[in-house]
Here is the input.
Amino acid sequence: MEPTVKNLVIEKAKTSKIDKVDFEHLSFGTVFTDHMFVCDFKEGVWQTPKIIPYQPLTMAPSSRVFHYGQAVFEGMKAYKDDQGGVFLFRPDENFKRINSSSVRLEMPEFPEDYFFEGLRTLLQLDNEWIKPGVGNSLYIRPFAIATQAGILAAPSNEYKFVIICSPAQAYYGGEVRVKIAEKFSRAADGGFGYAKAAGNYAGQFYPTRLAQEEGFQQVIWTDDHTHEYIEEAGTMNIFVRMGDRLLTCPINDRILDGVTRKSVIALAEDQGIDMEIRPIKVQELVDGMRNNTLKELFGSGTAAVINPILGFGYRGERFELPEVEDSYATRFKKQLLDIQYNKTADKFGWRYQVI
Ligand SMILES: Cc1ncc(COP(=O)(O)O)c(C=O)c1O
Here is the structure.
């Protein structure tokens, strides 16, 4: 395959590591493919993009990213069907989102042709790493960091855009119970919660660890003003089923505009499910448990697709969701996986074939 971005330089790995990988027992995000995509920003322009063997980055300890946190990223997956076709799911959304994250962190936007051609070439080179079978995927992590040396609290004038890929099996095993945040916030009005910026995740680890010590796996963040309204979880947007009505909160500048969330909303509307996008009070969940109208709570995100939430804790009380027949979570998960793995028609035009 000839790259269409004419100056994409390809340096192939001399040997592949693939034979050393146990694809049946992958620990998420720990094994990486043979190649990576890199492109530097210097003197106001993105330089020649390159695909090189996966390797460490060499950077000055004074690089701005280490001190001021100019770092954005994305999370995407490549899926392989039984005929060897390789697909991405709505990659244009991830591309737009990394650029809007960059703009918020005063970082340069990345060119669309470099992104898609880099990604396509990388996946072709590392195609063997993408295993067919629902649940298997190649997790794709594009990211950009500030590389200018010098500890001055100002935006960098040099950056590196990188794409690395990691073979993955289904992300979440086990059961998820969440603590609904009463004190800590993930993001605030006017901040950058909507950006997929590294700092948004760093700030979650401490409150999440405290919640884990109480026996929860994740935190559902609430609005920073009142802590009365649910917003999102660690790496998932949240859906609530009250009776047969599906609810999710609107996007605002504290919440990541998830691709999976958008897709669930589109599926629900298409199927005539009673769907409402409006602020959701924690108290509604508590009342819903008490009067048996709360039927389901689930998260949506690229890594887990749809993740049922089995219970939640709020103000010292714990609630266990009932088991439901005809679960929305199960239904949407299957529908999304069927589209992603090319097992069904793609009436929304979400599939993007790479190979
Ligand atoms: C904070 C946060 N919310 C929601 C999501 C879900 O977004 P998506 O469906 O695009 O993966 C993610 C994952 O990317 C996330 O990190």
